[in-house]
Design goal:
The complex is a heterodimer of chains A (111) and B (115). Chain A is an all-beta fold. Chain A is built from no helices and eleven strands. In chain A, a hairpin with a 6-residue loop joins β5 and β6. The termini of chain A are far apart. The model of chain A has no long low-confidence stretch (mean pLDDT 89). With 115 residues, chain B is mainly beta. Helix content of chain B is 0%, strand content 50%. In chain B, the strands form two sheets. In chain B, strands 2, 4, 5, 6, 9, 10 and 11 form a seven-stranded mixed sheet that branches. In chain B, strands 1-3-8-7 form a four-stranded antiparallel sheet, with no helix packed on it. Chain B is globular, with a radius of gyration of 13 Å. The relative contact order of chain B is 0.33. The chains are: A mainly beta (111), B mainly beta (115). Chains A and B meet through β5, β6, β9 and β10 of A and β4, β5 and β9 of B.
Chain lengths: 111, 115
């Protein structure tokens, strides 16, 4: 069964410190992994996805199939990064259209 | 493009009342979804529709019904509201079906309180 776990409900870091939000998944096929972000009073929006291998707002995430992880990293946290972050997984190459979201991590960047 | 729109933004219901949450998208997306967001639970899929005329249950479908009225619109109905359905409801759409990147586009959410 597909499953996404995010072990930290809350994460607090100081401005300028590195940040890593953890995400692990279970999926038997070839997954597509995403990170979504929800800033205060805004709708959820895509932050990045593993197939594009890009850096958005200084964030990167690498898919590690051996460890079934897709951790989100940023070398220097900014106050505007404070938000709720969701890791999500979708099946690729199947008729399975669902996206499974993790429980989310609330990131707080302390000035 | 308005993207994904939802109505209403806020709603208070009494136990046993019924209501329909409306969702529309103008991106010509094939798939549409309804999620609920609860503290500590993240986003949980209620129902989804992979294409016009089809709907499927998600993780937490009990107490809900859906209608994919056309390609643009996907409504969620609570027939007899219960306090456990107090939540924030998000509609989303994506271009997928299978084989295409399943990036989700979200609406602004509906905050529902059942007393």
């Amino acid at each position: 069964a597909q499953r996404v776990t995010q072990p930290e409900k809350l994460l607090s870091v100081f401005k300028g410190a590195p940040v890593e939000l953890k995400c692990n998944y279970s999926y038997s096929g070839s997954p597509e992994l995403f990170w979504y972000v929800q800033y205060s009073r805004q709708r959820l929006q895509l932050l990045l996805r593993h197939i594009s291998r890009e850096s958005i707002k200084g964030f990167t995430a690498d898919l590690n199939k051996g460890e079934t992880s897709f951790h989100l990293k940023k070398p220097f946290a900014q106050e505007e990064d404070s938000a709720m972050y969701y890791c999500a997984l979708s099946g690729v190459g199947t008729s399975y259209d669902k996206v499974i979201f993790g429980p989310g991590t609330s990131l707080s960047v302390i000035p | 493009n308005a993207g994904v729109t939802q109505t209403p933004k806020f709603q208070v219901l009494k136990t046993g009342q019924s209501m329909t949450l409306q969702c529309a998208q103008d991106m010509n997306h094939n798939s549409m979804y309804w999620y609920r967001q609860d503290p500590g639970m993240g986003l949980r899929l209620i129902y989804y529709s992979a294409s016009e005329g089809t709907t499927d249950k998600g993780e937490v479908p009990n107490g809900y019904n859906v209608s994919r009225l056309n390609k643009r619109e996907f409504s969620l109905r609570l027939e007899s509201a219960a306090p456990s359905q107090t939540s924030v409801y998000f509609c989303a759409s994506s271009e997928a079906p299978a084989g295409v990147s399943n990036e989700q586009y979200f609406g602004p959410g509906t905050r529902l309180t059942v007393t």
